[in-house]
Amino acid sequence: MNNANSSHEASNPNNADAPVVGFRRAYAATLIPESPWTRLSSAFRRRLIYGIWVVTWFGLLAGMFDSRFFEYTIALTVVHSIGFLALLRFRPMVFPTQLRIAYVGWLVLGTFVPFLGVMMHITLVGLGANLIWGYCPLARMLYLLPWNRQQPLSLELAWRAFFTAPKPGRFKVELARRASTTAVQAASM
């Protein structure tokens, strides 16, 4: 076994939760590395992130009344994304960086592509849900990309990705454990 896989398995002592072999290396690239970001206190990081997203949400809200504010919000989000890239040592595969890059793309499409203005309404509601309840629809969509998940894509995984209650930390879906057929057969005897 190579070192890229063994370090991830060492941090995951429960063998039943070990990721599918094909997903290990890609998933490991999405984890936050030791960086200037990790050296900041957890409380400061939470306040900083929350503050930036609140300002972004107010920019979106103002954009509903004057579309020029969408352009300012895009500029803020680009700076936010570049800042995260710098703090995370320019690793675009790290999940928080992916989220910010995808968010910039979403805002650009919603602002500049005709007939996609509804995306701005969706992001206003989605960011509001994230700020109030901690439910981030974009993070849940990104989780389903092959390099961000540890399980093969299935209907159950997609269902759980969107309907799992929010919790602190990186979003992760726990699939329900299924009894093996031999255990079911033994129980029925």
Main sheet: strands, sense, barrel: none
Total domains, how many? 1
Strand content: under 5%
SSE ordering: HHHHHHHHHH
Mind explaining what this structure looks like?
With 189 residues, this protein is mostly helical. It has one domain (21-188). It is built from ten helices and no strands. Helix 4 (42-63) runs antiparallel to helix 7, helix 5 (68-87) packs antiparallel against helix 6 (95-112) and helix 6 (95-112) runs antiparallel to helix 7. 17% of the residues are buried. Mean pLDDT is 81; it is low at 1-20 and 179-189.
What's the gist of this structure?
The chain is mainly α and 189 residues long. It has ten helices and no strands.
Secondary structure blueprint with pairings:
Blueprint lengths: L2 H8 L13 H5 L7 H4 L2 H22 L4 H20 L7 H18 L5 H16 L3 H7 L11 H9 L17 H8 L1
Helix pairs in contact: 4-5, 4-7, 5-6, 6-7
Keywords summarizing the entry:
single chain, 189 residues, mainly alpha, 10 helices, 0% strand, globular, disordered N terminus, disordered C terminus
